[in-house]
Design a protein that fits this description.
The protein has helices spanning 13-16, 39-48, 88-98, 113-117; strands at residues 2-4, 31-35, 54-58, 72-76, 103-107. With 118 residues, the chain is α/β, with parallel strands linked by helices. The chain has a 5-stranded parallel beta sheet with strand order 1-5-4-2-3, sandwiched between helices. The model is unreliable at 1-16 and 19-23 (pLDDT under 50).
């Protein structure tokens, strides 16, 4: 499943991952994968989630530990060309093939309609 979202409140994290935040404020011990070439984005994501959640960060796909079981992946769809041989949309496609039940959140500061339709 691919989800485009913008999360503005810490209380909405569980909801954005498909859980009702009012009944379950958040699940404990979630493993998240975050791939982004911007360290500030990774830092912001790490600080935004509950402390019990584990954010496994990578700047490119080759740095990510894909053997690990993840509950969700946050992928920058606009990785810069020099940061990896694969771009964000390629990484999303690869993860969807490797882990069909993984919840994938596509991230970008510049979402236009054409990119979302890809």
């Amino acid at each position: 499943m691919l989800v485009f979202c913008s999360i503005v409140s810490r209380s909405l994290w569980g909801y954005s991952l498909g859980y009702e935040s009012e009944r379950k404020p958040y699940l404990k011990d979630l493993n998240l994968l975050a791939i982004d070439d911007d360290q500030l984005v990774l830092q912001g994501l790490r600080r935004s989630v509950p402390a019990e959640w584990h954010v496994n960060e990578a700047h490119r796909l080759e740095e990510a530990n894909l053997e690990k079981a993840y509950h969700a992946a946050f992928i920058d769809i606009h990785l810069q060309k020099g940061s990896s041989k694969k771009h964000g949309l390629d990484i999303i496609s690869r993860l969807a093939e490797l882990k069909p039940h993984l919840e994938i959140v596509a991230m970008s500061g510049d979402l236009n309609r054409e990119t979302m339709e890809k």
